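EI: anyone free to look at a 237-residue chain?
SC: sure, send it
EI:
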Amino acid sequence: MIEKMTLEQFREIKRKLASIIKQNVDLYEQHKNDENYNYDEDKKRLEEQYLEIQNRLLSYDLSDIPFAEWMNMKIISDENHIADFSKTKANIDFDVVEYYGNGNFKGCNVRNLDKIQSFLNLNEFDEQTIQMNSQLFLSDAFGNEFKEKYYNNLLKISDLASLSSEQLEEIKQKGFREHLDYNASNILMLETLGLDKVVLLYNHSEQEYEAVSQILSSYSLEFRENTNSDVFSPKLL
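SC: here you go
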């Protein structure tokens, strides 16, 4: 049985984490016009400090910490630094924490998953959570390969074009834009024509699809650059 963290201990750790984020912001503001300053070096150092404290936090039973106490907490993680809450029994409200994917919340009491829809991954939550939030997760009408692409935001137009009409209706209801591979999909075409017409065009002729894609893309390079934002990438500090 792991040790329970008290509210006082949690608040102290939260203050330390907030202090590191403030240091990061302050260093950037102080040196942003200094061409000789190595911001990445300091950023990496602060990230390591943050992760060390965050990992210490995740070694405790956090079940006594109320949802509201997590307000403005930043959970940092990436593919190499998974935020593993699976032993904490934490009460996490995704409407009040900052989270960008690469976590494990199995065994936790979570709510407002819709706030992190673009970062949802089937493997990060237990079956009970998935059932309670079934409107946010794909049904078993989809195969494992498609689900893998969906939850890793790697869907291409060709994947959508292979779906049945019933699957297309479900994915429109669940949301698909957040799960597209923004390096491979023509987002402008979807914005302009809508999913049904894009799928119809792709299945009619891939050559015509590519031609229309190139025409639309030539009119809005700026749109594509703005859409291909790092908001869809893993985040540390």
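EI: The beta strands are 74-75, 83-84, 91-93, 98-99, 103-104, 109-111.
SC: 👍
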